[in-house]
Design goal:
The protein is an alpha/beta fold. The protein has 2 domains: 2-249, Type I PLP-dependent aspartate aminotransferase-like (Major domain) (Aspartate Aminotransferase, domain 2, 3-Layer(aba) Sandwich); 252-373, Aspartate Aminotransferase, domain 1 (Alpha-Beta Complex), CATH 3.90.1150.10. The chain is 36% helix and 16% strand. It contains 13 helices and 17 strands. The protein has helices at 11-21, 30-40, 54-64, 82-88, 108-112, 134-144, 195-205, 239-249, 252-270, 301-310, 326-329, 339-347, 359-373; strands spanning 2-3, 48-51, 72-75, 93-96, 119-125, 147-151, 159-160, 163-164, 171-175, 188-191, 209-210, 227-228, 276-277, 285-286, 292-296, 313-314, 348-351. The strands form 5 sheets. Strands 2-10-9-6-5-3-4 form a 7-stranded mixed beta sheet, with helices on both faces. Strands 8-7-14 form a 3-stranded antiparallel beta sheet, with no helix packed on it. The chain has a 3-stranded antiparallel beta sheet with strand order 13-15-17. Helix 2 (30-40) runs parallel beside helix 8 (239-249). The protein is globular and about 75 Å long. Bound molecules: pyridoxal-5'-phosphate (PLP).
Amino acid sequence: MLPYGRQTIEDVDIEAVTATLRSDWLTTGPQVDAFERDLAEWTGGVPVTVVSNGTAALHVAYAAAGIKPGDEVVTTPMTFVATASCATILGAKILFADVEEDTANLDPAAAAALTTERTKVIAAVDYAGHPAEYDELRKVADEVGALVLADAAHAIGGTYKGRFVGSLADLTTFSFFPTKNLTTAEGGGVAAADPELMKRARRFKGIGMIREEAEYANPNDGGWYYEVQEFGVNYRLPDVLCALGRAQLTRLGAFKARRTALRARYNELLADVPGLRLPVERDWVDPAYHLYPVRVLDGRRREVYDKLRAAGILVQVNYIPVYWHPAYAELGYQRGMCPNAEKFYAEELSLPLFPTLTENDQDRVVEALRTILG
Ligand SMILES: *Cc1c(COP(=O)(O)O)cnc(C)c1O
């Protein structure tokens, strides 16, 4: 069986985890701060707070942005549901803007057409790892005083115009799920350069607890004292998992290089397979690719999916347009709203891509596709 993505766990990871298990700290110890510091080396120095998973990261980011009922969020439908649903559960109204026809990233012009003075956040996704058009999105957001959020669950380790993912938006979220560019089993992070946003993110993920005396509303009652001024949740990432994340981060550069090489090899080997359209890359990005998304033309996506799965090649489809989910349909969202996204969904197939994928594995995928489509 060949999955579309999988983790790379080596002895250094196992040693890092077992050493932490033997230490005094299972959670909220030195590995958390160290992992956050290490992550900032991949965000161009932008501070990061780690959280329980990528969905939690989105919830924290929207909470830090102050999303409340009546606010509007403009986002892409070509993503995992959490990009939108984490704002919905805070009471926001979601406006789905269509994607660029080729990259499947949020189209800045489509986003601009939906922004109003109620828009609080424009949330882009770096689909497959390819950064969205952040300079254009920034202009759109500035016109209405909105924040830009990057759901970079696919994209840590990449750059856009020479700047790191993590430094491109006001708030950036990461996921460390096993199939992503690095893993902590479950885990995620929120990056923000603005100290006020970062403070709000840290408080929300930590039950709203405040321990800085200068910030207390009431007198300090003693060494045990803390205050809650705004409610929060517990989305802490334990020390044990932060140790795993640190070990993984030391190889993020190597993972990226391997993913890049495999992508280039797919591009070459698949170039002459009929009925396929291969992914594009803008000149100004240097992505760390999470997915290798091909387009299966002529209405044959379902057939190719079924035949590859039957051959033990566990391809995936990323993604069902978010507003197609019954939870959004019940809110009145209708199919047909974002034609580029719907067409992309109808054709998309994510081929196996992960650092330990061998060239033999890759040849097997290519040959299977050639047999089905040739
Ligand atoms: C994986 C993913 C998430 C959610 O991350 P989890 O760690 O699985 O909660 C959010 N957005 C996108 C685009 C993702 O791919």
